[in-house]
């Protein structure tokens, strides 16, 4: 018997329409940077890379996860900054704000360790062209892993988890933010898609076991499942570090296609985003209308409670 299901019968609110972005085509820069134990050097180094990216035409710059500090449970408390206090209490975000304003670009500022009261978070700040802080995302899913003989890392020893998802309207479209391990949770990406995101940005430091296994796979999955753009930015690899990053920062399009990527050395990837490709993909294959809300549903608790 033919199905009688109609999408409008689903009990959850329908996905919002994709908002019209302020620009359709623009350049994004993925700054795959090295992070040393010298915080001042890391800040100056990131500032230079952002400037170079802007000179090459990037309107959006994405930095890596934990770019101002070595990524270790010993270092995170020492390098942490009080972002809400700002100024001298947060030289890293002061630099990002100044760079965004003077270069007239949007910056998704990777992540830095944040101190807030007696807690520490892994936090990404987004700055607009006016230098104002537009959003702050605290990593929701902390990276606790134990594969004996390969990788043992317990981020939750030091950090607390954030409790909110973060979606932000910018001069380069509506952006959903996640940090590294957040990318493994498809529900977060689905919530962002349901809220009209054009692009998901994930600063991320996958490592030498998980990187080759599924770093590219999860990026392509989040993009293809949700028919939107996904951008990731890793630290460059330092083979002598305690935590060795995989690298391979990447831009994926709404067909799940890799548009730009790299190996593990320091580099700045410049690539073009064209949001008209999202509409095209969704017209070609209208997954949103084909979804069976009578059989399964995504419940966005944050939205329902607001
Ligand atoms: N820094 C991280 O969150 C790493 C995440 C990772 O490697 C994963 O498999 O997830």
UniProtKB/TrEMBL annotation:
<dbReference type="GO" id="GO:0050152">
    <property type="term" value="F:omega-amidase activity"/>
</dbReference>
<dbReference type="InterPro" id="IPR045254">
    <property type="entry name" value="Nit1/2_C-N_Hydrolase"/>
</dbReference>
<dbReference type="Pfam" id="PF00795">
    <property type="entry name" value="CN_hydrolase"/>
</dbReference>
<dbReference type="GO" id="GO:0005739">
    <property type="term" value="C:mitochondrion"/>
</dbReference>
<dbReference type="InterPro" id="IPR036526">
    <property type="entry name" value="C-N_Hydrolase_sf"/>
</dbReference>
<dbReference type="GO" id="GO:0006528">
    <property type="term" value="P:asparagine metabolic process"/>
</dbReference>
<dbReference type="InterPro" id="IPR003010">
    <property type="entry name" value="C-N_Hydrolase"/>
</dbReference>
<dbReference type="GO" id="GO:0006541">
    <property type="term" value="P:glutamine metabolic process"/>
</dbReference>
<keyword id="KW-0378">Hydrolase</keyword>
<protein>
    <recommendedName>
        <fullName>CN hydrolase domain-containing protein</fullName>
    </recommendedName>
</protein>
<dbReference type="GO" id="GO:0006107">
    <property type="term" value="P:oxaloacetate metabolic process"/>
</dbReference>
<feature type="domain" description="CN hydrolase">
    <location>
        <begin position="26"/>
        <end position="275"/>
    </location>
</feature>
């Amino acid at each position: 018997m033919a199905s009688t299901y109609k999408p409008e019968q689903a009990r959850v609110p329908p996905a919002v329409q994709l908002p019209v972005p302020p620009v359709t085509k623009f350049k994004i820069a993925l700054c795959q940077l090295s992070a040393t134990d010298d915080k001042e050097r890391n800040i100056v180094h990131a500032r230079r890379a952002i400037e170079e990216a802007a000179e090459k035409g990037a309107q959006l710059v994405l930095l890596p996860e934990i770019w101002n500090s070595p990524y270790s449970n010993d270092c995170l408390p020492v390098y942490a900054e009080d972002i809400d206090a700002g100024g001298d209490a947060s030289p890293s975000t002061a630099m990002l704000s100044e760079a965004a304003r003077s270069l007239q670009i949007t910056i998704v500022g990777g992540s830095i360790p944040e101190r807030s009261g007696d807690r520490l978070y892994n936090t990404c700040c987004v700055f607009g062209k006016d230098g104002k802080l537009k959003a702050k995302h605290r990593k929701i899913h902390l990276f606790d892993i134990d594969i004996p003989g390969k990788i043992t890392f317990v981020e939750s020893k030091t950090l607390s988890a954030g409790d909110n998802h973060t979606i932000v309207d910018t001069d380069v479209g509506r952006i959903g933010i996640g940090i590294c391990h957040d990318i493994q949770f498809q529900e977060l990406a689905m919530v962002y898609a349901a809220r009209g995101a054009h692009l998901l940005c994930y600063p991320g430091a996958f490592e030498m076991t998980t990187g080759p296994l599924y770093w590219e796979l999860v990026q392509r999955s989040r993009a293809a499942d949700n028919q939107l753009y996904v951008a990731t930015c890793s630290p460059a690899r330092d083979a002598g570090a305690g935590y060795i990053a995989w690298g391979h920062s990447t831009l994926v399009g709404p067909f799940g296609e890799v548009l730009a990527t790299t190996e593990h050395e320091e580099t700045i990837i410049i690539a073009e985003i064209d949001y008209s490709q999202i509409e095209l993909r969704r017209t070609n294959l209208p997954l949103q209308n084909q979804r069976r809300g009578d059989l399964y549903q995504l419940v966005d608790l944050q939205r329902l409670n607001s």
